[in-house]
Design goal:
The chain is an alpha+beta fold. It contains nine helices and 13 strands. It binds zinc ion.
């Protein structure tokens, strides 16, 4: 039973002291820029205000108004915000985890959007609605006055407006719908792997940079990086000297993976049939004589597409005479 001091609403310093009791000794917010810190302090202020009002049987904090329409909390707000900010500590590793969570959520949301805003993770719609035998199990948190964790089976992912939600079947044997940011970051990682494994994710090769000369992904570029969080800020300049390819051991320009794949595909298509035969092991004579040339070329193209990127690259590097 919490006892509310009698003069809580009338004496400014009593209310201030009461609010301080509900604060944590230290705060570790996800982001440390001024706007995020102010939003963080405001949300903590509101949480404390509403908790005190609830405990005092007042209901929502904002309803507690004096005759002239102001709330007693208005008088202490500035001091409380200052005290919250004084208790803020910067945990740079935690901030990196929050960035990773943001990236994972954006990537999963992109995949869900590409599937008309809905992915069933319990029933395999492409397989006569049979159940997946590896439906993701997740751990999620619910934030109330205290944060606690639960486990659940993920039934589906869906978009509402622009936000990603998930339907979970939890320990309470009920279905719960929550924003996907309630899932722990490890579960988001496993989920993005699951989506790729089951063919939901279409990788976008236009976003991936490779060496323009050899197509290697083993490349580096000079960039501006926050020395504390190691978060990427931006490129130094768009200059070849800022880039390095570990495979070529040279400063080279970069291009997209999509562009490099296309370049190799064009080379293979225009290769002469003797070279195609030598590399692929397919023989023009094995195809019917009328459409022989065409069938042979089509078979060679299929063979090329069945190879993984690095095998294609090795063949291209060894045989491209340009
Ligand atoms: Zn290279």
């Amino acid at each position: 039973m919490i006892t509310i001091p009698e003069n809580l609403w009338t004496r400014r310093e009593v209310l201030y002291k009461e609010m301080v009791k509900y604060m944590s000794h230290c705060y570790f917010p996800a982001y440390s820029d001024d706007t995020s810190l102010h939003e963080f302090a405001m949300s903590e202020f509101r949480r404390i205000r509403d908790t005190i009002c609830r405990n005092g049987g007042i209901g929502e904090g904002l309803k507690l108004l004096t005759d002239n329409g102001t709330s007693p909390f208005d008088a202490v707000q500035e001091d409380i915000l200052r005290e919250i900010l004084r208790r803020v500590r910067k945990d740079f590793l935690f901030q990196q985890i929050c960035d990773i969570q943001k990236d994972l959520l954006a990537s999963v949301a992109r995949t869900v959007k590409n599937h008309s805003g809905y992915i069933d993770t319990l029933y395999d719609e492409d397989n006569g609605d049979a159940e997946f035998d590896d439906t993701p199990a997740v751990v999620f948190h619910r934030s109330g006055s205290e944060t606690y964790y639960e486990t659940a089976i993920l039934l589906n992912l869906h978009m509402t407006d622009t936000k990603l939600y998930c339907t979970l079947h939890g320990d309470s044997d009920e279905n719960i719908v929550l924003p996907a940011d309630a899932l722990l970051v490890e579960c988001l990682t496993a989920l993005s792997h699951w989506l790729e494994e089951h063919g939901f994710t279409v990788s976008d090769d236009t976003d991936i940079a490779v060496c323009d000369v050899c197509g290697s992904l083993d490349i580096q570029t000079q960039a501006w990086v926050d020395p504390n969080t190691h978060v990427y800020i931006g490129e130094t300049e768009d200059d070849r000297d800022d880039n390095w390819c570990e495979e070529c051991e040279e400063h080279n320009y970069f291009c997209s993976l999509a562009e490099f794949k296309e370049r190799m595909r064009d080379w293979w298509r225009s290769a002469d049939s003797l070279l195609m035969e030598k590399i692929s092991g397919l023989r023009p004579g094995d195809f019917s004589s009328e459409a022989g040339v065409h069938d042979f070329a089509a078979a060679c193209e299929r063979w090329w597409e069945s190879l993984d990127y690095n095998t294609q690259r090795t063949i291209w590097k060894n045989n491209n005479k340009e």
